[in-house]
Amino acid sequence: MKLSGGVEWALHCCVVLTRAARPVPATRLAELHQVSSTYLAKHLQSLSRAGLVRSTQGKTGGYVLTRSPQEITVLDVVEAIEGPQSTYVCTEIRQRGPMGAPPEACAAPCAIARTMYAADHAWRATLREVSIADLVRTVGTDYEGDVLGPIGEWLVAADS
Amino acid sequence: MKLSGGVEWALHCCVVLTRAARPVPATRLAELHQVSSTYLAKHLQSLSRAGLVRSTQGKTGGYVLTRSPQEITVLDVVEAIEGPQSTYVCTEIRQRGPMGAPPEACAAPCAIARTMYAADHAWRATLREVSIADLVRTVGTDYEGDVLGPIGEWLVAADS
DNA sequence: CATTACTCGGACAACTCTTGTCCAGGTCAA
DNA sequence: TTGACCTGGACAAGAGTTGTCCGAGTAATG
Fold it and tell me: Comparing C-alpha atoms, which of A91, A104, A112 is closest to residue B34?
């Protein structure tokens, strides 16, 4: 029960991409965060498949957010990386064994599964309430001075 | 990001243990659910270490709940199996790279981590609201007739 | 318009963790 | 004393994650 580390990378990338005027290559994003560029590229592909970022190829290619930051929720990013499936999978063990319940009585999920699903929904609801724009705003108030601005400029600078 | 399958087993065991008058051996619980007895035993050991069940050794040994069902929450069981650590681990990548933030500015967790922690807390809060007694009550209304009673009797029966 | 350099994209291994099994040791009731 | 049961650890298999590589495509450039 541990979230993939790629979620953290992807969220940080989305936050800094809000301050980039031009497409940012995966290599530059990896350099900024000091992570493996090839592995980060894989996660960026997931974001691309989910439609959160658009990739442009060629010499000045890279990644750009497709929507405005307030229209991208943290849940969007998490589900793009982790997948939309629930954290709990019910194997219907109530139907198994000598005291197993008959299948026709198990149309609805059992009480245990319903509880776990409710918790999963509460988790997702919390993530849905926060947008990338909210994160950017919070980062702005967390530190003295503007920290995201210089990062955005560094991302589109000529070289490192 | 998938919950261990042992959580499902443990929860079902706790529910049926509420209807067992005497200690129930792990073998019998495994037989009831048609799962590996040796692997289930490992999870029951986790419940024992967490203090949710008491194990008695010897010929008529087995597992019994230590507290009344309404004093055991679903979260207790989940944390006994999965551990109490958060689902999200922050690696502080904001401090890394050429634009890394200085450590003295990172006393508090970053905005991303705070959001993930909040979602984690919401998940746990939901699980904490539901007790084993609640599950037993819900199971009673889910089906026609009493399904847990016969199971409790079967658990303490002489043989299968 | 051809070249070239740069990018993404998906297929390919190495690794870690979870899942599952097994056995020796200790304990209690009959 | 015997048999059944729990405890703890060591051990193997499988899945999922982490990480790497090379080919296809695209845009700038001369």
Answer: A91
Residues of B in Cβ contact (< 8 Å) with A74: 112, 115-116
Round to whole Å and give the CA distance between B19 and B152: 5
Q: Which of B7, B74, B122 sits opposite A126 (nearest CB)?
A: B122
Distance of CA B53 to the CA centre of its chain: 11
| pLDDT tens, residue by residue, A89-117 | 999 999 999 999 999 999 999 999 999 99
Structure confidence at residue A71 as a pLDDT band (50, 70, 90): very high
Q: Is B24 helix (H, G, I), strand (E, B) or coil?
A: strand
B87 CB neighbours in chain A (<8 A) are 1-3
pTM assigned to the model: 0.93
Q: For every residue of B63-84, which 3-state class applies, written as one string?
A: EEECCCHHHCEHHHHHHHHHCC
Reading the block at residue A60, the tokens are: 């000045």
Q: Which residues contact A24 (CB under 8 A, 6 or more apart)?
A: A17, A62, A63, A64, A155, A156
Token duo for residue A59: 């010499």
Judging contacts by C-beta atoms under 8 Å, the chain B residues touching residue A147 are: 99, 101
Contact in structure between B33 and A96 (CB atoms under 8 Å): yes
Say if residues A76 and A50 touch (Cβ distance below 8 Å).
Answer: yes
With a CB-CB cutoff of 8 Å, which residues 55-94 of chain A face chain B? 74, 82-83, 85, 87-91, 93-94
Enumerate residues 6+ apart whose C-beta is below 8 A from A156. A20, A21, A22, A24
Is the Cβ of B125 closer than 8 Å to some Cβ of chain A?
A: yes
